[in-house]
Amino acid sequence: MAIVAWCAVLACAAMVASCNVIEEELPSYAETSVVGVGDHAPQFEIESLGGEMLRIPNSEITLLVLFSHTCPDCKALFDKLQGYVESDEELPAIMAISRGGTEEEIARYRAENNYTIAMAADPQKEVYYKYATMYVPRCYLIDGSGVILFMTYEYTAGDARLMIDKYQELLR
Q1: Number of Cβ atoms within 10 Å of the Cβ of 96
Q2: Paired strand residues for 119
Q3: Within a 13 Å sphere around the CA of 78, how many CA atoms are in the beta-carbon half?
Q4: What is the pLDDT of residue 18?
Q5: Mind listing the pLDDT tens digit for each residue in 74-96?
Q6: Tens digits of per-residue pLDDT, 1-54?
Q7: 27, CA 20 to 30 Å: which among 3, 7, 77, 132?
Q8: Per-residue model confidence as pLDDT tens digits over 92-122
């Protein structure tokens, strides 16, 4: 029986490889970015899960995180950011806007992971599409007048620290 199952797995792998499904190249980060460093961040206003209004621009330096509640890299980023939130470090205002997902899904994600970061659900992806067309998480460090100072795509180890360091450099 195990041999039959193994043969089925090999046959499926051969079919996928022969279909050239994997050969399609994905667009670059630059090709999927609507805005970049030095641009004015697109304006938005959205209600957070806690009922407060999150908006860009606002009068303070803000770390905007665009994420998906199903994205493992987003979770890794939030775990790191939450650690900084719980420390005594000086941090920018942090707001996180979902790329899709209902308010209930985002609230459950926030509660299950014990995040205290301000989050908002954007089921229609209206905020996300003002900034990008593909890839999460995306992080934007935005000054009080709405200019994008720094940004990252997806998440790699050290990104959260890099954003915090950039913010702290601005305070000096």
Answers
A1: 26
A2: 96
A3: 28
A4: 42
A5: 999 999 999 999 998 899 999 99
A6: 556 444 444 444 444 444 445 568 999 888 999 999 999 999 999 999 999 999
A7: 77
A8: 999 999 999 999 999 999 999 999 999 999 9
In the chain, DSSP assigns E strands to 44-47, 53-56, 62-67, 93-98, 118-120, 138-142, 148-153
* Contact call for residues 151 and 135 (beta carbons, < 8 A): no
3-state secondary structure of 78: helix
What's the rounded Cα separation, in Å, for the pair 46 and 107? 15
d(CA 136, CA 24): 19
Orientation of helix 72-86 relative to helix 159-171, angle to 10°: 40
Where in the chain are the domains?
28-171
Residue type, 164: I
Question: In Å, what is the CA distance from 165 to each residue of 87, 113, 116, 141?
Answer: 14, 25, 21, 11
The phi and psi torsions of 163 (rounded to 5 degrees) equal: -65, -45
> At the topology level of CATH, where does 28-171 sit?
Glutaredoxin (3.40.30)
Six-digit token string for 59 = 């009068």
